[in-house]
């Protein structure tokens, strides 16, 4: 299997993407894997638990997060990507919006670009085209520093669909093949609780667009709001939302709790494939 076929694999059978934040300030595990040695151990642990993709990020995109420089981001992610690439054949995703980080990460061994800004920063589209690896395009209203202050939509599902299709078209026009594009509705990125719940209820409409859909809801605040639970108590809610997403046709689940999610994927897939 070539790495470029990872999205084809995902369309045929849902995959688990393990979250590996090499940051001091991510909302759930900030600081836990900041040292490259700990990050490598966690990455290999998630592979053993069933992750097909490890998503390495060096800049937090939680609400109110402060931006970091490209140099800081590279210092954080490159040692981890290089180590994972040498230790495991797992697909490595780089979670970044910066073109220079995309280029260096792919050179170091990353196989997928996961961009919360959908390649909209200056130079990002060109960097992705030149990298010639699959990309995931996410919807976000606003920027991480301010996105949760007062998000507004007339019809959230339709607006997210329209944005993603426009970005897909622009990527294709730039030279990225459609089979190398995945999309992400961006749960929690410039959305209220009501927006997030509506997106999840009608996720099938986004899945029906024909591209692999990545869903990242693991431990997010929408779960805390419904269950009145802090980050450490959101496991059951995360698994429930992952199951709903799978049933509606999602292809990739971006999660912190890999083993349980991988087991849920296996069980739900067995039911869905039964005759």
What does this structure look like?
The protein is of the alpha/beta class and 275 residues long. It has one domain (14-273): Dihydropteroate synthase-like (TIM Barrel), CATH 3.20.20.20. Helices cover 46% and strands 13% of the residues. It has helices at residues 6-12, 36-49, 70-87, 99-108, 124-131, 156-174, 193-201, 203-207, 221-227, 235-247, 258-273; strands at residues 15-21, 53-57, 91-95, 112-115, 135-138, 181-184, 214-215, 252-255. The chain has an eight-stranded parallel β-sheet, sandwiched between helices. Helix 4 runs parallel beside helix 5 and helix 10 (235-247) runs parallel beside helix 11 (258-273). The longest helix is centred in the middle third of the chain and has 19 residues, at 156-174.
